[in-house]
Amino acid sequence: MDHDAELLMLCALDALDPSEESEVRSHVRVCPACREEFIQCCEVVGHLALVTRPVLPPIALRRGLLSAIAQAPGRRAAHLEASNGIKDIHWEKTKAGSFRGTA
Questions:
Q1: If we measure between CA atoms, which residue out of 2, 24, 30, 1 comes closest to residue 11?
Q2: Which of 12, 15, 25, 33 lies most in the core, judged by the most C-beta atoms within 10 Å?
Q3: Is residue 65, in this structure, part of any structural domain at all?
Q4: Are residues 34 and 72 in the same domain?
Protein backbone atom coordinates (compact mmCIF):
# COMPACT_ATOMS: atom_id res chain seq x y z
CA MET A 1 0.00 0.00 0.00
CA ASP A 2 1.20 3.49 -0.80
CA HIS A 3 0.73 6.37 1.59
CA ASP A 4 -2.94 6.93 0.68
CA ALA A 5 -4.78 9.43 2.89
CA GLU A 6 -8.13 8.53 1.35
CA LEU A 7 -7.74 4.86 2.28
CA LEU A 8 -6.77 5.85 5.82
CA MET A 9 -9.95 7.93 6.19
CA LEU A 10 -12.11 5.19 4.67
CA CYS A 11 -10.59 2.70 7.11
CA ALA A 12 -11.31 5.05 10.03
CA LEU A 13 -14.91 5.29 8.78
CA ASP A 14 -15.09 1.47 8.62
CA ALA A 15 -15.93 1.78 4.92
CA LEU A 16 -13.44 -0.69 3.42
CA ASP A 17 -13.97 -4.32 2.60
CA PRO A 18 -12.13 -6.75 4.90
CA SER A 19 -9.16 -7.33 2.57
CA GLU A 20 -8.61 -3.58 2.05
CA GLU A 21 -8.93 -2.93 5.75
CA SER A 22 -6.38 -5.64 6.51
CA GLU A 23 -3.95 -4.14 4.01
CA VAL A 24 -4.33 -0.64 5.46
CA ARG A 25 -3.95 -1.83 9.07
CA SER A 26 -0.87 -3.87 8.16
CA HIS A 27 0.70 -0.80 6.55
CA VAL A 28 -0.20 1.42 9.50
CA ARG A 29 1.67 -0.96 11.84
CA VAL A 30 4.96 -0.40 10.00
CA CYS A 31 4.63 3.20 8.73
CA PRO A 32 4.85 5.87 11.45
CA ALA A 33 3.62 8.66 9.14
CA CYS A 34 0.50 6.74 8.11
CA ARG A 35 -0.07 5.57 11.70
CA GLU A 36 -0.13 9.21 12.86
CA GLU A 37 -2.48 10.21 10.05
CA PHE A 38 -4.73 7.22 10.78
CA ILE A 39 -4.92 8.25 14.45
CA GLN A 40 -5.93 11.75 13.36
CA CYS A 41 -8.54 10.32 10.98
CA CYS A 42 -10.01 8.24 13.82
CA GLU A 43 -10.20 11.34 16.01
CA VAL A 44 -12.03 13.25 13.25
CA VAL A 45 -14.49 10.38 12.80
CA GLY A 46 -15.08 10.34 16.56
CA HIS A 47 -16.05 14.02 16.46
CA LEU A 48 -18.40 13.81 13.48
CA ALA A 49 -21.42 13.11 15.66
CA LEU A 50 -20.67 16.24 17.66
CA VAL A 51 -20.52 18.63 14.71
CA THR A 52 -23.37 17.38 12.55
CA ARG A 53 -27.01 18.05 13.14
CA PRO A 54 -29.09 14.93 13.68
CA VAL A 55 -31.57 14.24 10.90
CA LEU A 56 -34.66 12.16 11.39
CA PRO A 57 -35.37 9.76 8.55
CA PRO A 58 -38.62 10.13 6.60
CA ILE A 59 -41.51 8.36 8.37
CA ALA A 60 -42.00 5.97 5.41
CA LEU A 61 -38.37 4.86 5.66
CA ARG A 62 -38.68 4.34 9.42
CA ARG A 63 -41.88 2.31 9.03
CA GLY A 64 -40.34 0.20 6.26
CA LEU A 65 -37.25 -0.50 8.34
CA LEU A 66 -39.28 -1.41 11.42
CA SER A 67 -41.48 -3.65 9.29
CA ALA A 68 -38.44 -5.44 7.86
CA ILE A 69 -37.03 -5.91 11.37
CA ALA A 70 -40.34 -7.25 12.63
CA GLN A 71 -40.48 -9.78 9.80
CA ALA A 72 -36.88 -10.97 10.17
CA PRO A 73 -36.58 -14.41 11.77
CA GLY A 74 -35.84 -14.19 15.48
CA ARG A 75 -36.22 -10.42 15.59
CA ARG A 76 -38.84 -8.34 17.34
CA ALA A 77 -39.57 -4.68 16.78
CA ALA A 78 -42.50 -4.38 19.18
CA HIS A 79 -40.46 -2.33 21.63
CA LEU A 80 -39.83 0.22 18.85
CA GLU A 81 -43.50 0.82 18.15
CA ALA A 82 -45.93 2.73 20.30
CA SER A 83 -49.56 1.72 20.47
CA ASN A 84 -50.43 4.69 18.24
CA GLY A 85 -47.59 4.24 15.74
CA ILE A 86 -43.86 4.79 15.68
CA LYS A 87 -42.31 6.75 18.49
CA ASP A 88 -40.54 9.94 17.54
CA ILE A 89 -37.04 10.30 18.88
CA HIS A 90 -35.90 13.78 19.79
CA TRP A 91 -32.17 14.47 19.91
CA GLU A 92 -30.76 16.71 22.62
CA LYS A 93 -27.22 17.98 22.94
CA THR A 94 -25.78 17.22 26.37
CA LYS A 95 -23.52 19.52 28.37
CA ALA A 96 -20.59 17.29 27.38
CA GLY A 97 -21.35 18.01 23.72
CA SER A 98 -22.69 14.61 22.73
CA PHE A 99 -26.23 13.84 21.63
CA ARG A 100 -28.87 11.87 23.52
CA GLY A 101 -32.02 10.48 21.98
CA THR A 102 -35.25 10.70 23.95
CA ALA A 103 -38.69 9.43 23.07
A1: 24
A2: 12
A3: yes
A4: no
